[in-house]
Specification:
Helix content is 12%, strand content 43%. The protein is built from two helices and twelve strands. Strands 1, 2, 3, 4, 5, 6, 7, 8, 9, 10, 11 and 12 form a twelve-stranded mixed sheet that branches.
């Protein structure tokens, strides 16, 4: 059993999605694809992303403030980038949004993004912020 899966069976997915249900795969399907996500349970709700059968990044899901997740990333020293996602929240007219913190291999924030979607799932806007929260880019 992989680290962080105490008392839980492994669950495999095709890709990570912060808002929509994810397509579950069997372990055999995931390994055959080579690119997949493995869900972990523990102090954080985490996913391990594999590309070509190798760990390529870690995803933390449902995090309201990144500090504890960043400390966990630095303590684990897994040597891969990480993405921290807040929970999806309503955004006017039935749309939704969240915040993503994108970290390098050492656990330093490289940038922050705030995607917002319309109720039909199409992009409404994406805001990109510097690590200190200063606006870098805005797309409508």
């Amino acid at each position: 059993m992989a680290a962080g899966l105490t008392g839980h069976a492994r669950r495999y997915y095709r890709v990570f999605d912060n808002h929509q249900p994810m397509k579950e795969l069997t372990e055999q399907e995931a390994v055959a694809r080579g690119s997949y996500i493995v869900e972990e349970h523990g102090a954080f709700h985490r996913y391990r992303r594999y590309s070509d059968g190798k760990l390529s990044s870690i995803i933390y899901d449902g995090v309201s403030s990144p500090e504890a997740a960043i400390a966990d990333i630095r303590a684990r020293r897994e040597g891969v980038p990480a993405d921290i996602f807040s929970s999806s929240t309503p955004a006017g007219d039935g749309g939704y949004r969240w915040r993503e913190w994108h970290l390098d291999r050492e656990g330093n924030i490289e940038w922050i993004s705030e995607p917002e979607y319309r109720s039909d799932g199409g992009h409404r806007r994406i805001t990109t912020l510097a690590p200190d929260g200063a606006l870098e880019h805005f797309t409508d």
